[in-house]
Write a structure and sequence with these properties.
- The complex is a heterodimer.
- By secondary structure, chain A is α/β, with parallel strands linked by helices.
- In chain A, about 40% of the residues lie in helices and about 20% in strands.
- In chain A, the strands form 3 sheets. A 6-stranded mixed beta sheet of chain A has the order 6-7-8-3-9-10, with helices on both faces.
- In chain A, α8 links the parallel β7 and β8.
- In chain A, α5 packs parallel to α7.
- Chain A is globular.
- Helix content of chain B is about 75%, strand content about 0%.
- Chain B contains 15 helices and no strands.
- Chain B is globular, with a radius of gyration of 27 Å.
- The chains are: A alpha/beta, B mainly alpha.
- The interface between A and B is medium-sized, with 30 and 22 residues.
Chain lengths: ~350, ~350
């Protein structure tokens, strides 16, 4: 599988003389030293990430970790100090002004944390924006705009103004606007962070539902690990502008490579996030108390067994037997690994 | 013996001074001294080394009146060229002022007043504002000031229109470049703080007093400032997140300007237009000194002949005109503001 978007050795340093500072950073100068000695701020350091087509890549980090800077490199709202950004194998850095505009219109759309809707336009006009910018005729704009607004659950709100809608509804307009662009790639910059928790869950479900049907390449930025684990096919964890760990979210959860990530994952409700697939072992017995699907989460399993740890299940995935689940392993997996005492299940 | 002879000698400038010695016109101090009976005046022991004082010590140093005369000479020297460029450039302004003036006066009152009321209604969408405008216009008619009020109004219309036409693009240019802003702001400050009478003088030198553009220019130079400032401000205040979204969806520079920046800056631009209207009205009164017709000329007449009644009625007329123009433009501003916040 070739990556839809690849970042290769991406560096970003903020300051008047950033290109010259890249060498200092490459030879190991830290953020603090760079700021103190050269008055330049280190934004991103040696980022290498592949984003697969049809997957949700979540980039997670605390504020100041460079995640918003990173996502703005993909459509070059921010230019890197060094490195390559490949979209479908094409280096975005080599695009001229009009080719870059073309890329932004037709290949990438973006959803913003603060919605960034046009306050003087109606909901429908906002949703149509990407098409009308490209010069599509009014009928097409209208049809597509209405279609996607309906798809995100905003039928009947077309003629309202953004200020008349709640935050959650405004962000639905933001998503409809990005969908109307009909791009393969969707960039979501903390898209749900400004919403309250219940609405946020709704929006996450909406996104997953849309993704099931549309198979877009989504790059999602968040500072919330629960959200990251719920959405991610591929999780990238960023700290101080560098990638500390990336991979399949379950494996990061079970095998954090860094005390920073351990801290992160220790607070998570593991039973809800971890799935049978991640904690099962190879078949080595012949007595099973039943069959379970590999995609069930551990919370489900505990409810199923009523807390009995002596049981053992055969695990199936699409009708095929893939392993066995000993409930004792399950319980062990629920305890976060603290500084390498218990090996991962 | 002048006070600074010693200094001139000490600097070794004596020869240079004497080389160009001639009978310079006498300074005021010398004149006074002469008329005082020929005795040598002993001023303060150490007078401030001004141009006049230094001139006494050294004839080659000019007097202060040479400075002001020099400015006038310089201006007169470039006048033909300046006139050559400015005259044709500003000629349309004369045509517009004369044409609009003619239109406002030739149209009978029973067409003009309803048209003005329709404009008020269309701009403000407010019945009370329109009713107020109607009562003021009828009052002008009633006290036989309708004609002069229309003259003033026509000048305000033309000058405000041109100020917007020129000011908004300048404001846009300023908002795009910090350097342009740094260069233009001092000029705007100068235009606004320079006493308004002062720029009437060069205008009289440049153009004939019979041309109407002479007062048109005076009004526009004074009134264009707020619309430039507020266009610049309005565009700079447009939400950065929205601008980023516009970039992310690949809007061209023109699309960003027309679809995002100008509409979002509109409330500020309208506030600038309101200010521009008020300032052009204020300037029309002063411009009556260079033959601008209208209520201002009545004020001037009142001053000249010390005619209290004429002056006060004309002055109150200007106030009333200012109030209706302000109410109508403010109502328009409020309407623009509302479409985006309300409900």
């Amino acid at each position: 599988m070739t990556a839809k978007v690849s970042l290769r050795g991406l560096y970003k340093i903020f300051g008047p003389n950033d290109a010259a500072m890249v060498d200092h950073v490459k030879t190991g100068m830290g953020k603090a030293t760079l700021l103190e000695k050269h008055r330049h701020v280190l934004g991103l350091r040696d980022i290498n990430v592949d984003m697969q087509p049809g997957e949700i890549t979540v980039i997670m980090g605390l504020s100041g970790s460079g995640k918003s800077t990173l996502i703005r490199h993909l459509n070059r709202l921010i230019d890197p100090s060094a490195g390559e950004i490949l979209v479908d194998g094409q280096d975005v850095m080599k695009l001229g002004q009009s080719a870059l505009r073309d890329l932004r219109q037709k290949q990438m759309s973006m959803v913003f944390q603060k919605f960034a809707l046009l306050p003087h336009k109606t909901v429908l006009e906002n949703a149509q924006l990407p098409l009308s910018v490209q010069g599509a005729d009014k009928a097409t704009c209208d049809r597509e705009g209405r279609k996607w607004l309906a798809r995100v659950g905003l039928e009947g709100f077309e003629d309202r103004y953004p200020a008349q809608l709640s935050g959650g509804m405004q962000q639905r307009v933001g998503i409809a606007r990005a969908l109307t662009a009909n791009t393969d790639i969707m960039l979501m910059d903390e898209a749900f962070s400004a919403l309250d928790p219940l609405i946020r869950t709704d929006m996450q479900n909406l996104l997953l539902e849309l993704q099931k049907e549309l198979h877009k390449t989504i790059v999602f930025i968040t500072h919330d690990l629960d959200e990251a684990l719920k959405l991610a096919d591929h999780l990238v964890i960023l700290k101080d502008g560098a990638v500390v760990q990336q991979g399949e979210p379950q494996s990061i959860l079970l095998a954090p490579s860094d005390p920073y990530i351990e801290d992160f994952v220790s607070d998570i409700n593991r039973a809800r996030v971890l799935r049978v697939r991640s904690v099962m072992g190879p078949i080595n017995g012949d007595h099973f108390d039943g069959e379970v699907d590999a995609s069930r989460n551990l919370e489900d399993m505990i409810a199923l067994t009523g807390g009995d740890t002596n049981l053992c299940y055969r695990v199936t995935d699409g009708g095929e037997v893939v392993g066995q689940l000993d409930m004792k392993d399950l319980v062990k997996a629920l305890v976060p690994r603290v500084s390498a005492d218990v090996p991962p299940a | 013996m002048a006070a600074y002879d010693g200094v001139i000698d000490g600097l070794g400038l004596r020869d240079w001074c004497d080389a160009g010695k001639e009978d310079a016109p006498m300074s005021m101090a010398q004149l006074l001294a002469q008329s005082g009976g020929g005795e040598t005046s002993n001023g303060p022991a150490l007078p401030f080394p001004s141009l006049d004082v230094l001139h006494e010590a050294c004839g080659r140093i000019g007097q202060t009146r040479d400075l002001t005369a020099g400015i006038e000479q310089g201006f007169l020297a470039v006048r033909p060229e300046l006139k050559l460029v400015l005259d044709p450039l500003t000629q349309p302004l004369s045509w517009m002022l004369d044409g609009t003036l003619w239109l406002f006066q030739a149209t009978p009152w029973w067409i003009m007043i309803p048209v003005l009321l329709l404009i008020s209604w269309w701009v403000s969408r407010s019945a009370s504002v329109t009713a107020f405008v109607a009562s003021v216009l009828l009052f002008f008619g009633f006290i036989d000031h309708y004609e002069v009020a229309m003259q003033t109004l026509s000048i305000v219309f033309v000058c405000t229109g041109i100020s917007i036409l020129l000011g908004v693009p300048i404001g846009i240019g300023m908002s795009k470049s910090d350097r342009a802003q740094r260069m233009i702001v001092p000029i705007l400050d100068l235009m606004q703080t320079m006493p308004t009478f002062v720029y009437l003088i060069p205008l009289i030198f440049l153009f004939s007093i019979t041309e109407s553009k002479i007062y048109g220019i005076a009004v526009i130079v004074y009134a264009i400032v707020p619309v430039i400032r507020l266009t610049d401000l309005g565009i700079r205040l447009v939400d950065r997140d929205v601008m980023e979204a516009a970039d992310a969806f690949g809007l061209t520079a023109w699309q960003k300007l027309t679809r995002v920046q100008l509409p979002l800056a509109l409330p500020n631009i309208m506030a600038g237009v309101n200010q521009t209207i008020m300032m052009s009205l204020a300037m029309v009164v002063i411009a009556s000194m260079i033959a601008a017709p209208g209520l201002g000329s009545l004020v001037l007449q009142g001053i000249r002949t010390i005619d209290l009644g004429v002056g006060i009625i004309a002055g109150l007329g200007i106030v009333l005109l200012a109030v209706i123009l302000d109410r109508v433009s403010k109502a328009a501003l409020a309407r623009v503001d509302n479409t985006r916040k309300e409900h």
